[in-house]
Amino acid sequence: MRSIWNGAISFGLVSIPIKLVNATESHSISFRQIHLEDGGRIRYRKFCELEDKEVTSAEIGKGYEDADGSIIPITDEDLSHLPLPTAKTIEIVAFVPADRIDPLQMDASYYLAAGGAPAAKPYTLLREALKRSNKVAIAKYALRGRERLGMLRVVDNAIAMHGLLWPDEVRAPEGVAPDTKVTVNDKELDLADALMDTLGEIDLDELHDEYREALEEVVAAKAAGETPPEAPEPAKGGKVLDLMAALEKSVSAAKKSRGEEGGEAEEEAEVRRLPARKSARATPKQTTGRKSTSTATARAAGKKTAAKKTTASAKKSTSKSTQAAKKTTAKKSTQPKKTTPRKRTA
After folding, report:
1. Whole-prediction pTM value?
2. Among 76, 143, 178, 331, which one is most buried in terms of CB atoms within 10 A?
3. What is the SS3 assignment for 126-145?
4. Taking each helix axis from N to C terminus, what angle separates 186-199 and 243-257, rounded to the nearest 10 degrees?
């Protein structure tokens, strides 16, 4: 890795020669501007306004525009003589617990490499001191024309430095939080905790940029003269009108995705804001379409009940008549038959 800045770490009377190396890299896919008609490259050229001619990078310097519009040239030599102790030094000003640093202040990240064999001993001393104290070092340094704030911490066996924004560069979250008064009950919090526990932790090394992979597929298909792959249709979520149902569906879906029992196939829930409940005493009841619908349903149910009662009574009367007929027939069959005496023949 190529160093982008050379200097020293200073804390107290200890000075450690170091080299600043980028700790991150970008894997994003970049595009060129082209002329749509013929595919030719579009380039930006730098022209001098006074001479109206193109100039090279070697001919370009820095200048500060004053309030009256005049330009004050500033050379690299002028910048190298700034009255700053941090011009070539990372000056440690304090050691604090890591949780004192607001993540909103985090900026670019760098590795601090020891600058030669003489730096090995003090570099190791600082690293081990940071490890044992469980603290981070707050430092000031100058880079790319401005003084910056940094945080030094240990990563494996190296010292890393995170650039920090100055406290006055972090905006207060005014007007960001919802201004509507909302009450969250314990059951909702319990379901939220259950969802967090179900999702659990993840190995960050397993995460990757799916957008970049999809973009690479499109570029490869276009290069091969093939049709780029089409995006899958997004799943249509069910309309859920309350937060509790959405949380329950989310927990069930999370369990199913992890192969746990109790996870059922549920549609993706969409949370909608419920209308505020109004007091029954304050607002008189109004007749709505739902009420008429429920009344009609009740009437229909009443008709069905009456019909059932009529049918039941008819069946009952039929049963009674049938039983009476059976009794009459039984009585007739049990009565003795009358016999006529036969006449004797003389």
Report:
1. 0.59
2. 143
3. HHHHHHHHCEEEEEEEEECC
4. 20
